[in-house]
Amino acid sequence: MRKRVxxxxxxxxxxxVLQANAGTTKTLPKEKIGVLLKNYxxxxxxxxxxxxxxxxxxxxxxxxxxxxxxxxxxxAFATQNFTAKSVKFYYKKLAxxxxxxxxxxxxxxxxxxxxxxQLVAGAKTDDNGIAAIWGNIxxxxxxxxxxxxxxxxxxHGLFDRHLSVWASHGIYYDQKKSRWKWQxxxxxxxxxDLFTQTIVVPYLIPMLENAGAVVYTPRExxxxxxxxxxxxxxxxxxxxxxxxEKWLDTEGKxxxxxxxxxxxxxxxxxxxxxxxxxxxxxxxESWASYQPTIPQAGRYAVYVSYQTLDNSIxxxxxxxxxxxxxxxxxxNQKMGGGTWVYLGTFDFDKGNSDDNRVVVTNLSEKRxxxxxxxxxxxxxxxxxxxxxxxxxxxxxxxxxxxxxxWAGAPYSVYGGRGGSDDxxxxxxxxxxxxxxxxxxxxxxxxxxxxxVPIELSxxxxxxxxxxxxxxxxxxxxxxxxxxxxxxxxxxxxxxxxSHDFAEALLSGLQHDITAKYGKWSRRYLWDRNYSETxxxxxxSAIIExxxxxxxxxxxxxxxxxxxxxxxxxxxxxxxxxVSKGHERPFVVQPLPVNNLRVERTDNQxxxxxxxxxxxxxxxxxxxxAYNIYIxxxxxxxxxxxxxxxxxxxxEARRGVVxxxxxxxxxxxxESFPSETLAAYLSPDADAKDILVVDxxxxxxxxxxxxxxxxxxFDLDADMGVTLGLAAGWNxxxxxxxxxxxxxxxxxxLGYSGDELAGxxxxxxxxxxxxxxxxxxxxxxxxxxxxxxxxxxxxxxxxPSHYSVIDMAFGMQKDDGHSLVHYKTFSSTxxxxxxxxxxxxxxxxxxxxxxxxxxxxGDERDFLSGVFKTSYGGSDSNQTNxxxxxxxxxxxxxxxxxAVHYSATNVNVMRPxxxxxxxxxxxxxGTDAAVAYDGADYKCFVMGFPFECINSIKAxxxxxKAVMNFLTKNN
Length: 970
Prior knowledge:
Strand order of the largest sheet: 32-29-28-41-36-42-43-50-49-48-45-46
Mean pLDDT: 94
Strand content: 25-35%
Largest sheet: 12 strands, mixed
Number of helices: 17
Number of strands: 50
Distance between the termini: 118 Å
Structural class: alpha+beta
């Protein structure tokens, strides 16, 4: 019996196994699946889709146990505008391209770091992490300010998100000491009041804005000392024109300006009038023009003001004319009335011209009223009097208390201590201003305010502590406040969301900086009662980025490359936090492009070419397009045009100098721009081709002093090079005594003076080629093209195509302390130069460190053998700024200033042998330039940057003489 039962069981089991096997489809080898997927990518494309390059399969993976298949397609696939319909098409085609069982697997198609269903504009995620921050609370109206001229749309960044971000502190009036003073000590050539601005203003805020965000900052953001206000009340520069509808006075009070100082509590926004006009959809428009008299050419922030009425429109049109170009903004006047509203920062020419102005019109898609008041150009100087005196500083360097008054805030926002304690008032003003703006919005519904939907605030500080080892790294610290108002924000959301934000900031910094530079410390996350985290009625945090008291931290912090990395980390955390808080997928904006060059094609067109830069930390930070900005003959840059590939062919007019810069674009926003290159095609058909190589790449902190007894930064030896304008210096370091680390006062390690306070210093504007191209174009019959240094070194440019190569090195050198390595003539570049001159090429080389950067034996041999010159020492005497030679006498820019970088150090360059000769001399008689006039080739080497010649006329004379020398026949 037992045998029959066992036999029956075995027979039944065998039958079940046979049936199971009969119903199972055989899996394929991975190679065959790969072939099917490769063909799928090549053969399937939705309607009306075109690619810059053919997409291809990057990778795939299959998990048979979980029945999942993931296909990763190259970024070119992500350049199309995905819709729900096209996503369905691609998944259906993928399933039909695969045999069973794969066609029934859970299929995922990814490109540029995301599943394609999440690349659809407006897509939602199913993230269960911090997705419930806001619940059903969301703002869905028009942004406060939107740049309508951008040729792309940010669908997966921070579009229509409003943020408040500020740099800590600022100079304030101390009532007890009856003087203006910093809130934090002078250390390592700066103070926290200035230093944190160098992270927030040139890096963090632009990154957030490039992602589509509207960013408010309580301190003045514009490092421009000049300020011009055009207002309807004084009529100077104000003109209005009536179309179908007439301009009228508003019922409420408006802005009016008076010269001199403003007393505590005086509100400029209740001293004048404002204007209004009914909006029209079509027909004759009414407009008002604000045309300033600009005292000095340069970059100016543009602020507008208006009044918010019950029937205000949300799409008021503002047109900013900047050096002849125009950029259009839409402003939502349903919010933000009665204060300064930032549009953008633009280049303006000196003087009064209709090429430089702001126009507001009443054309609108909505019914209602357009209002207008004053327009402000430039940040200006502080004008709030305290204790009978003004600060004497640019407004951007003052604390937020004084900017709030100038912005028309109620006295309760910035004067809570009744004028008796500006320090305490300033701390509270940053949050109070944010709440005043956000009051009445969906995120701060129960407070009175201007209804701007600000949903996040971040205070950026640098007071993370101190270590006994002064060269160690303190790192970052974050602060939040959860135990206040029963643990709830104004909207009812739990204050624990601020804890999540602070945690994300710290984790992001530690991860990103460690990945880039090898180490960074995470210190603490404090949940404590601080004004800047207690008072904001939206998720908020303080990030103590580093320790400004600690040399180890500031060695990183004073390097512009580090500031970029730190700001990018903060931006990415904000992007993730805000996006996940609304259950939205996100894409990180790309890194700037490199290897840029401009060449002349055979059919006399200009071809601009570049390469994308891969972000190893962010799979979504892949460019899907590029924006090409162009300027003609000194006009302002236009708003760009989008291309999908990595080149752009341009039909140039002869006799016109063009400037180009390129940004990388994706759904998450726009990268920082490339360097600016220039090009010129001569009207003369027989013109010689000249190449200008922009060799000035360096961004660096100041010179470092580090020995057994001394530690710190030496501004006199080398001030370093910032990206563009910098406002971070307050004085030279005076105490270098290592043993005084951690102490305070004049005898403390790092203690610095105040002689540079309020001084803005221009750094590397990344446009060195422009000056050279412009002056060569006026010097004779030449076609002038340009290239970045890396494009030349990587052989993307053919030197043999050019009669002369002009290498502009500016302040380029291997300084030994920068976080990025720079060099004038690398070993690769030396070989390329030698090959060029062996073919009879001619070269013009200029830079402040041509000789001092080439002091190894082989490098000295290169200078003497190729350029017939030798290094004769460095000259740091900035009063020795006159150069004589070529029948010309001219001055150099050697003192730090806000307009152009200065050659604080220059090289003495001597003839190396009898075949070369001194062509120029400094005022003290030392050699400034060496020329070689050989039968085989010619060269001209300057020990100073050509673009630092402080006169347009002198630059022209010098360049013409040099070009004549180099292009003449023997």
